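I hope you will forgive my troubling you with a question about protein structure. You will find the record immediately after this paragraph.
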Amino acid sequence: MDAFLLNFLNFDILALVWPQLMRGLLVTAELSAVVVPLGLAVGLLVACAQSFGLRWLDIAMMAYVDFLRAFPPLVLLVFAYYALPFLGIELSTFMAVVLALVLNTSSYFAEVFRAGIESIPKGQVEASRSTGLNALQTLIHVVLPQAVRKMTPDLISNILETVKLTSLASVVTLPELLRVARMAQGNTFNATPLVAAALIYLVLLWPVVRMLSHLEQRSLAAR
Protein backbone atom coordinates (compact mmCIF):
# COMPACT_ATOMS: atom_id res chain seq x y z
CA MET A 1 0.00 0.00 0.00
CA ASP A 2 2.84 2.40 0.83
CA ALA A 3 4.39 1.76 -2.57
CA PHE A 4 1.06 2.52 -4.27
CA LEU A 5 0.66 5.80 -2.39
CA LEU A 6 4.27 6.73 -3.10
CA ASN A 7 3.87 6.23 -6.85
CA PHE A 8 0.26 7.28 -7.50
CA LEU A 9 -0.85 9.57 -4.65
CA ASN A 10 2.32 11.29 -3.58
CA PHE A 11 1.25 14.56 -1.92
CA ASP A 12 4.78 16.02 -1.96
CA ILE A 13 4.89 15.68 -5.74
CA LEU A 14 1.32 16.90 -6.04
CA ALA A 15 2.20 20.10 -4.16
CA LEU A 16 5.23 20.53 -6.43
CA VAL A 17 3.31 20.21 -9.74
CA TRP A 18 -0.02 21.75 -8.63
CA PRO A 19 0.71 25.24 -10.09
CA GLN A 20 1.57 23.64 -13.46
CA LEU A 21 -1.65 21.61 -13.41
CA MET A 22 -3.67 24.76 -12.72
CA ARG A 23 -2.05 26.50 -15.69
CA GLY A 24 -2.92 23.47 -17.83
CA LEU A 25 -6.47 23.52 -16.52
CA LEU A 26 -6.75 27.18 -17.53
CA VAL A 27 -5.73 26.33 -21.10
CA THR A 28 -8.27 23.47 -21.14
CA ALA A 29 -10.97 25.88 -19.91
CA GLU A 30 -10.04 28.48 -22.55
CA LEU A 31 -10.08 25.84 -25.27
CA SER A 32 -13.49 24.53 -24.14
CA ALA A 33 -14.88 28.08 -23.90
CA VAL A 34 -14.01 28.66 -27.56
CA VAL A 35 -14.68 25.23 -29.09
CA VAL A 36 -18.06 24.48 -27.49
CA PRO A 37 -19.90 27.68 -28.58
CA LEU A 38 -18.36 27.56 -32.07
CA GLY A 39 -19.19 23.88 -32.46
CA LEU A 40 -22.78 24.54 -31.38
CA ALA A 41 -23.12 27.54 -33.70
CA VAL A 42 -21.71 25.77 -36.77
CA GLY A 43 -23.76 22.65 -36.01
CA LEU A 44 -26.93 24.74 -35.74
CA LEU A 45 -26.20 26.50 -39.04
CA VAL A 46 -25.65 23.16 -40.79
CA ALA A 47 -28.89 21.72 -39.37
CA CYS A 48 -30.87 24.85 -40.31
CA ALA A 49 -29.45 24.73 -43.83
CA GLN A 50 -30.69 21.15 -44.14
CA SER A 51 -34.19 22.15 -43.00
CA PHE A 52 -34.89 24.48 -45.94
CA GLY A 53 -35.46 21.58 -48.35
CA LEU A 54 -32.97 22.71 -51.01
CA ARG A 55 -31.59 19.50 -52.51
CA TRP A 56 -28.14 20.80 -53.44
CA LEU A 57 -27.72 22.39 -50.00
CA ASP A 58 -28.96 19.25 -48.28
CA ILE A 59 -26.43 17.11 -50.18
CA ALA A 60 -23.58 19.52 -49.36
CA MET A 61 -24.44 19.57 -45.64
CA MET A 62 -24.89 15.80 -45.56
CA ALA A 63 -21.43 15.37 -47.11
CA TYR A 64 -19.96 17.78 -44.51
CA VAL A 65 -21.53 15.89 -41.60
CA ASP A 66 -20.80 12.38 -42.89
CA PHE A 67 -17.18 13.14 -43.74
CA LEU A 68 -16.36 14.80 -40.43
CA ARG A 69 -18.15 12.17 -38.34
CA ALA A 70 -16.23 9.40 -40.12
CA PHE A 71 -12.84 11.17 -40.17
CA PRO A 72 -10.69 10.52 -37.05
CA PRO A 73 -10.42 13.75 -35.01
CA LEU A 74 -6.79 13.01 -34.16
CA VAL A 75 -5.84 12.87 -37.84
CA LEU A 76 -7.87 16.03 -38.48
CA LEU A 77 -5.92 17.78 -35.73
CA VAL A 78 -2.56 16.61 -37.05
CA PHE A 79 -3.55 17.80 -40.54
CA ALA A 80 -4.66 21.23 -39.25
CA TYR A 81 -1.42 21.70 -37.32
CA TYR A 82 1.20 20.16 -39.60
CA ALA A 83 -0.23 20.18 -43.15
CA LEU A 84 -1.98 23.56 -43.47
CA PRO A 85 1.33 25.50 -43.36
CA PHE A 86 2.32 23.67 -46.57
CA LEU A 87 -0.80 25.20 -48.17
CA GLY A 88 0.19 28.67 -47.02
CA ILE A 89 -2.18 28.73 -44.02
CA GLU A 90 -0.27 29.50 -40.81
CA LEU A 91 -2.24 28.99 -37.61
CA SER A 92 -1.11 29.18 -34.01
CA THR A 93 -1.20 25.92 -32.07
CA PHE A 94 -4.31 27.08 -30.20
CA MET A 95 -6.17 28.06 -33.40
CA ALA A 96 -5.19 24.81 -35.17
CA VAL A 97 -6.71 22.84 -32.28
CA VAL A 98 -9.82 25.05 -32.32
CA LEU A 99 -10.25 24.55 -36.09
CA ALA A 100 -9.93 20.76 -35.88
CA LEU A 101 -12.21 20.36 -32.86
CA VAL A 102 -14.88 22.74 -34.18
CA LEU A 103 -15.00 20.88 -37.50
CA ASN A 104 -15.31 17.55 -35.71
CA THR A 105 -17.78 18.52 -32.97
CA SER A 106 -20.01 20.63 -35.25
CA SER A 107 -20.84 17.52 -37.28
CA TYR A 108 -22.17 15.79 -34.16
CA PHE A 109 -24.02 18.89 -32.94
CA ALA A 110 -25.56 19.22 -36.43
CA GLU A 111 -27.01 15.71 -36.18
CA VAL A 112 -28.53 16.49 -32.77
CA PHE A 113 -30.05 19.75 -34.05
CA ARG A 114 -31.34 18.05 -37.21
CA ALA A 115 -33.06 15.31 -35.20
CA GLY A 116 -34.63 17.94 -32.94
CA ILE A 117 -35.88 20.03 -35.85
CA GLU A 118 -37.34 17.00 -37.63
CA SER A 119 -39.16 15.95 -34.43
CA ILE A 120 -41.47 18.97 -34.67
CA PRO A 121 -44.74 17.99 -36.43
CA LYS A 122 -45.08 19.39 -39.95
CA GLY A 123 -48.59 20.55 -39.05
CA GLN A 124 -47.10 23.17 -36.74
CA VAL A 125 -44.81 24.41 -39.49
CA GLU A 126 -47.68 24.63 -41.97
CA ALA A 127 -49.86 26.43 -39.42
CA SER A 128 -47.10 28.95 -38.78
CA ARG A 129 -46.57 29.56 -42.50
CA SER A 130 -50.33 30.11 -42.90
CA THR A 131 -50.12 33.01 -40.42
CA GLY A 132 -47.70 34.84 -42.71
CA LEU A 133 -44.35 33.78 -41.22
CA ASN A 134 -41.68 32.92 -43.77
CA ALA A 135 -39.52 29.80 -43.53
CA LEU A 136 -36.76 31.48 -41.51
CA GLN A 137 -39.19 33.12 -39.08
CA THR A 138 -41.00 29.80 -38.61
CA LEU A 139 -37.68 28.10 -37.89
CA ILE A 140 -36.58 30.73 -35.36
CA HIS A 141 -39.86 31.41 -33.55
CA VAL A 142 -41.70 28.07 -33.74
CA VAL A 143 -39.43 25.12 -34.52
CA LEU A 144 -36.15 25.85 -32.69
CA PRO A 145 -37.60 26.76 -29.25
CA GLN A 146 -39.44 23.42 -29.10
CA ALA A 147 -36.61 21.44 -30.67
CA VAL A 148 -33.98 22.78 -28.25
CA ARG A 149 -36.07 21.66 -25.24
CA LYS A 150 -36.31 18.14 -26.66
CA MET A 151 -32.62 17.80 -27.49
CA THR A 152 -31.13 19.41 -24.37
CA PRO A 153 -29.88 16.09 -22.88
CA ASP A 154 -28.19 15.14 -26.16
CA LEU A 155 -26.61 18.58 -26.47
CA ILE A 156 -25.23 18.40 -22.92
CA SER A 157 -23.88 14.91 -23.59
CA ASN A 158 -22.08 16.19 -26.70
CA ILE A 159 -20.70 19.18 -24.80
CA LEU A 160 -19.31 16.78 -22.21
CA GLU A 161 -17.59 14.74 -24.91
CA THR A 162 -16.22 17.94 -26.46
CA VAL A 163 -14.57 18.99 -23.21
CA LYS A 164 -12.93 15.58 -22.90
CA LEU A 165 -11.89 15.77 -26.56
CA THR A 166 -9.76 18.84 -25.82
CA SER A 167 -7.18 16.46 -24.31
CA LEU A 168 -6.24 15.59 -27.92
CA ALA A 169 -4.50 18.99 -28.02
CA SER A 170 -1.60 17.39 -26.14
CA VAL A 171 -0.65 15.69 -29.44
CA VAL A 172 0.36 19.05 -30.95
CA THR A 173 2.08 20.22 -27.74
CA LEU A 174 -0.61 22.68 -26.60
CA PRO A 175 -0.03 22.80 -22.82
CA GLU A 176 -3.53 21.84 -21.73
CA LEU A 177 -4.19 19.81 -18.58
CA LEU A 178 -3.27 16.34 -19.89
CA ARG A 179 -0.15 17.59 -21.68
CA VAL A 180 1.06 19.33 -18.51
CA ALA A 181 0.30 16.24 -16.42
CA ARG A 182 2.27 13.99 -18.80
CA MET A 183 5.23 16.38 -18.77
CA ALA A 184 5.14 16.51 -14.96
CA GLN A 185 4.98 12.72 -14.87
CA GLY A 186 8.10 12.55 -17.04
CA ASN A 187 9.96 15.08 -14.95
CA THR A 188 9.12 13.48 -11.60
CA PHE A 189 9.08 9.82 -12.71
CA ASN A 190 5.83 9.50 -10.78
CA ALA A 191 2.20 8.92 -11.90
CA THR A 192 0.71 11.30 -9.33
CA PRO A 193 0.33 14.24 -11.81
CA LEU A 194 -1.67 12.01 -14.20
CA VAL A 195 -3.87 10.77 -11.34
CA ALA A 196 -4.41 14.37 -10.23
CA ALA A 197 -5.37 15.43 -13.78
CA ALA A 198 -7.88 12.57 -13.98
CA LEU A 199 -9.37 13.58 -10.62
CA ILE A 200 -9.66 17.20 -11.78
CA TYR A 201 -11.59 16.07 -14.87
CA LEU A 202 -13.79 13.88 -12.65
CA VAL A 203 -14.57 16.63 -10.15
CA LEU A 204 -15.41 19.14 -12.88
CA LEU A 205 -17.42 16.87 -15.16
CA TRP A 206 -19.23 14.64 -12.66
CA PRO A 207 -21.86 17.32 -11.79
CA VAL A 208 -22.57 17.65 -15.53
CA VAL A 209 -23.00 13.88 -15.80
CA ARG A 210 -25.48 13.92 -12.89
CA MET A 211 -27.38 16.81 -14.45
CA LEU A 212 -27.54 14.90 -17.73
CA SER A 213 -28.96 11.83 -15.98
CA HIS A 214 -31.55 14.02 -14.24
CA LEU A 215 -32.63 15.59 -17.55
CA GLU A 216 -32.89 12.19 -19.21
CA GLN A 217 -35.10 10.90 -16.38
CA ARG A 218 -37.32 13.97 -16.66
CA SER A 219 -37.54 13.49 -20.41
CA LEU A 220 -38.58 9.84 -20.00
CA ALA A 221 -41.14 10.75 -17.33
CA ALA A 222 -42.68 13.40 -19.58
CA ARG A 223 -43.38 10.90 -22.39
Summary: The two ends are 50 Å apart (CA to CA).
